[in-house]
Amino acid sequence: MIPFAYKNNRLFCEETDLTAVAGQYGTPAYVYSKAGIVHNFQKIDQAFAAHPHLVCYALKANANPVILKMMAELGAGADVVSGGELALALKAGFPAQRIVYASVGKTDAEIRYAIGSNVLAINIESREELQVTARIAAEMGAVAPIAIRINPDIDIEGHPYLTTGKSANKFGIEMKEARDCYLWAAGQKSIKIAGVHCHVGSMIKKADPYVKMAETLAAFVSDLQAQGIHFEHVDIGGGLGVDYTRVLGEKETPWFMEPEDIAEKVIPVIKQTGCEILFEPGRSIIGPNGLLLSQVLFRKETKGKKFIIVDAAMNDLIRPSLYSAYHTVLPLQKSDAATEQVDVVGAICESGDFLAKDRDLPVMQRGDHLAVMTAGAYGYTLSSNYNERPRAVEVLVDGDSHRIIREREKAAF
Ligand code: LLP
User: Which of 56, 296, 331, 336 has its CA 20 to 30 A from that of 137?
Assistant: First the structure.
């Protein structure tokens, strides 16, 4: 299900006319569909129903407190990557025993906070971090629950910035060293082995990397179980890819593959270990259920190039600039006007500040509105105040009602 559709040539989110939303709250504005978020979470959760599991929503995709509270109430766990995200997750109502904490660079204060909060697992990313965690837990008179993040050298064949499971990446510990780390950890009084962790990348488009990862992890765990080490969970990370060209229609599915395609291949493999499965999706839950509303400020033409200059920019949505990411752009009012090829750009003083390049869009004029689709994930969380621009307002749509879930930052003038 995708909650956006044209009705009478006007773009709607659920039963809400987005032109009215833009008029009421101004632009740029992030708009999210409650029904879409709930649907995607439940679809992913149910896909794993045949096996004990926990879907830990990755906060980095979108950490709006109202959305987090919704996810916690749906029974999701949380995947956090900093003390700040851990604090947000706890405040939103995620029970600590449903929170996993990964990061290659935790500070001592963050490690202390995670241990003191009694999280489900601290995902360890280096031998040194394991030793420091054991020491800090001992000093606290506590026991730190850990899962070592394995780097299995699996390629997802995606954007180099979104690939995390190759040896050349900074993430996780290579298999042989990880095995030594577990054997060492098993002898530490201040460490409890909770599970094993892996995340090979984001925007995964095929089930293969998950299957390879599951097989690798199952073999790894079985070997250590034979050494007497007990594991409670196998965490397969997040990464389910979203098709940025599928943006409209209730019958459309936003994913390259259904979550069931992953679950039915992964469950039988992990089942042999007797472990619970943890899955950490972010983008696939929230990405297709959010968009960025913007208004045309000016039109401009240079030799051979037409620009539509809008009031959103790379400080609001950096994905096109940072990863050359494609986001579909749609006018809020569909028309029969002729189309033209344009770049949709923001006001920031960099040529890398664009939202879309060389797109055929209906001719748009100053004051018209457009939507940058599939912007729910890694949109607001990656936004900044670059060029002293205030961050956008965030709005949640629920049927035909809508409300602000984070105020627009105040302009300094
Ligand atoms: N678990 C871990 C350990 C991760 O590092 C990530 C994402 C996830 C789960 C969630 O992955 P997802 O299901 O959302 O793909 N800013 C980039 C994406 C960076 C992803 C970082 N890690 C983008 O805008 O495409």
Answer: 56
